């Protein structure tokens, strides 16, 4: 009697143990080939290629880790103790250098001061444990001091409010969806869900989370194809949902958001691959306001998406691997350009103001020639991310400012 043949496991042993995405290549997957690792599959005869390949990067980047729910520890520590115990927080002078490794894309892949960050924000993370720590030789680890964590999360939590009240956010611009006569459906749902979330109370909380979950499910339904504009709006909507669910403090919402993390990473990195947003030199300003807004919206959406991922990692495990992929991104920090209401206003703003184009997160020109009044919300967010609250406040004072960040 023949023994039934077991199907091959989804990942080789190397990728499985490292919690990396595996393309299941034969005789060796792409990751093992690029790193000259021994590539084995448990359910098939062990094989190993004798060839020694050069250690060149894969065309579309490296792999991303996959941290799964783990321990069931039911005691929630205080925020101070939780941060003090996290790896990387012992040296608070160590700067954060955010970034993420995009997953390998195989060839067949076509000012809301009333918001507070307290222990409840981090409570649900206590039920998660890191499955395996990334190999420090694979990527650069980023850490943050507590004041930076609080500021960045507080600022990102204002984005749903800004979207509802203003119809735009630091990464969402109405003009970027110009192929549609109205706001595209994914963003309509995100705005509606955000409005409902902002009215949340003890009586409607359960219904509110059910509706948000239903909206996310619709958003993540399979599509035969989508344009770059559709791709952008769907990613923007998902980022809004992740901000709502990850940073609220509700355990159920946090668990739901955790299941969407891989999709967030995948959509983000595919958008970068489709648009080349990470390699734009930024030396030429588009003559078209519509084109500039779209290109800027793509870059900003990728940055905010990866910042959400970074903060999720840092709160959960004390460090992030989101280093290279945020640092490789660039955007325009000049408030007058992003908030220009029409093409004429934008053209005037280009003539009258410095762009403060932050090429690969280089803040030299901005800190030398600009001041806080010229910088939009995303510019402030990234300034604090890279420089820290104290350094940014010192810069504000040097420039004659009186309103400091908290």
In short:
The chain is 47% helix and 1% strand. The protein has 17 helices and two strands.
Describe this structure in words.
It is a single chain. The protein has 406 residues and is mainly α. It has helices spanning 13-18, 30-35, 79-85, 119-123, 146-157, 159-166, 185-198, 205-219, 228-246, 251-275, 289-317, 324-327, 335-338, 343-352, 364-369, 377-387, 389-398; strands at 331-332, 357-358. The protein has a two-stranded antiparallel ribbon. Helix 7 (185-198) packs parallel to helix 9 (228-246). The longest helix has 29 residues, at 289-317. The radius of gyration is 22 Å and the shape is globular. The model is unreliable at 1-8 and 43-137 (pLDDT under 50).
Query: Percent range for helical residues?
Result: 40-55%
Q: Could you give the order of strands across the largest sheet?
A: 1-2
How much beta, percentage-wise? under 5%
Helices and strands: which structural class? Answer: mainly alpha
The rough form would be described as globular
Would you count the extended β strands for me? Answer: 2
Number of separate helices: 17
The whole-angstrom Rg is 22 Å
Query: Order of SSEs, N→C?
Result: HHHHHHHHHHHHEHHEHHH
Q: Termini separation (Å)? A: 73 Å
Quaternary structure state of the chains depicted: single chain
Mean pLDDT: 76
The major sheet is characterized as:
2 strands, antiparallel
Low-confidence stretches: 1-8, 43-137
């Amino acid at each position: 009697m023949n023994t039934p043949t077991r199907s091959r496991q989804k990942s080789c042993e190397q990728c499985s143990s490292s919690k990396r995405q595996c393309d299941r290549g034969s005789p060796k997957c792409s990751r093992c080939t690029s790193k000259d690792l021994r590539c084995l599959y448990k359910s098939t005869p062990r094989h190993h290629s004798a060839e020694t390949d050069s250690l060149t990067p894969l065309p579309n980047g490296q792999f991303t880790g996959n941290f799964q729910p783990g321990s069931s520890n039911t005691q929630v520590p205080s925020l101070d103790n939780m941060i003090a115990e996290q790896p990387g927080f012992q040296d608070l002078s160590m700067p954060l250098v955010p970034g993420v490794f995009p997953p390998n894309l195989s060839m067949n892949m076509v000012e809301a001061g009333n918001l507070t960050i307290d222990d409840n924000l981090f409570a649900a993370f206590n039920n998660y444990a890191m499955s395996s720590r990334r190999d420090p030789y694979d990527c650069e680890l980023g850490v943050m001091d507590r004041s930076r964590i609080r500021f960045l999360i507080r600022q990102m939590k204002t984005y749903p409010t800004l979207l509802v009240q203003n119809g735009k956010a630091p990464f969402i611009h109405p003009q970027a969806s110009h192929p549609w006569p109205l706001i595209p459906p994914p963003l309509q749902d995100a705005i509606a869900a955000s409005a409902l979330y902002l009215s949340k109370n003890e009586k409607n909380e359960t219904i509110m989370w059910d509706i948000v979950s239903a909206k996310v499910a619709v958003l993540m339904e399979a599509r035969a194809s989508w344009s770059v504009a559709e791709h952008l709006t769907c990613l923007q909507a998902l980022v809004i949902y992740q901000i709502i669910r990850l940073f609220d403090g509700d355990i159920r919402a946090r668990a739901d958001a955790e299941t969407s993390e891989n999709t967030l990473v995948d959509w983000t990195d595919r958008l970068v691959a489709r648009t080349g947003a990470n390699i734009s030199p930024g030396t030429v300003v588009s003559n078209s306001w519509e084109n500039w807004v779209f290109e800027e919206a793509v870059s900003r959406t990728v940055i905010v998406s990866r910042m959400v991922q970074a903060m999720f990692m840092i709160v959960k495990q004390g460090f992030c691997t989101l280093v290279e992929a945020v640092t490789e991104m660039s955007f325009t920090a000049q408030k007058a350009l992003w908030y220009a209401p029409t093409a004429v206003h934008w053209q005037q703003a280009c003539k009258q103001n410095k762009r403060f184009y932050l090429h690969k997160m280089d803040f030299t020109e901005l800190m030398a020639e600009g001041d806080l009044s010229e910088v939009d919300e995303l510019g402030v967010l990234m300034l604090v991310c890279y420089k820290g609250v104290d350094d940014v406040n010192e810069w504000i004072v040097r420039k004659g400012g009186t309103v400091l960040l908290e």
